[in-house]
User: What shape does this take?
Amino acid sequence: EIVLTQSPVTLSLSPGERATLSCRASQSISNSLAWYQQKPGQAPRLIIYDASNRATGIPARFSGSGSGTDFTLSISSLEPEDFAVYHCQQRSKWPLTFGGGTKVEIK
Amino acid sequence: QVTLKESGPALVKPTQTLTLTCTVSGFSLSTRGSRVSWIRQPPGGALEWLTRLDWNDDKFYTTSLRTRLTTSKDTSKNQVVLTMTNMDPADTATYYCARTNGDNYFDYWGQGTLVTASS
Assistant: This one.
């Protein structure tokens, strides 16, 4: 099973700052990675797929990069609604797996 | 408009079997390319993919829970069913169903249902 390790566990930032989140895979997964945003009490929402493609309706301040084993989700300038938990997910091999999540909180 | 909604018991006793239903709208479970997964999340914990059921009745299961899980569908009711046997307190989680696209990403989710396994 492919293990995804997200870091940091918690990221404390102020609105307007840049957020950089990391997801590392235990083996190469090419670009087969998605990112999801989850707000308290809500289901996750797909924001990035295939490592760097924004899903429908996702603002341009969200960007993804990486391939192989190292991936990054960047939020260029945090808006109040961006404070949430972010999860990565790989689809390269069965079973599909998620990372442990990174919480982006208001500093 | 695609929607999914989970339903089932909020509380089950250890050793019992959990049955959850996902009712979908906005797409048909019999349409080629239609896929629905179940994903769970313990309180404060990580997401865990459990199963995927396809329009042609192909089924995929996570390795660690393979022997306890079954998924099926009733296309006439637009419903997907998940059963999990021998429930344990460690299975306490919010259970989500999610439409799964052709790339195995989850593009629409239900609101989730919290299931507590406790005596």
